[in-house]
Amino acid sequence: MKIGLTYDQALDLPFGELLDLIAIEQIKHEGMVRRRVLSDEEIIPDVR
Fold it and tell me: How far apart are the first and last CA of the chain?
């Protein structure tokens, strides 16, 4: 597998851990763009 595990090792890992390893691999090779964090006012504007 691309993340450096055999299929047997991947099947023995808890699912959450496997997803973490896959996410790390994707970030390393596909890059990452930080999302803009919205403020409360941007999410729910003060409408009068």
Answer: 56
Q: Provide the 8-state DSSP code for 6.
A: -
H runs (alpha helix) in 1-48: 7-12, 15-30, 40-43
Predicted model pTM: 0.58
Distance between CA atoms of residues 29 and 17, nearest Å = 19
pLDDT of residue 48: 66
Q: Tell me the C-alpha distance between 15 and 41, whole Å.
A: 37
DSSP letter (8 states) at residue 28: H
Beta-carbon contacts of 39 under 8 Å, excluding residues fewer than 6 positions away, are none
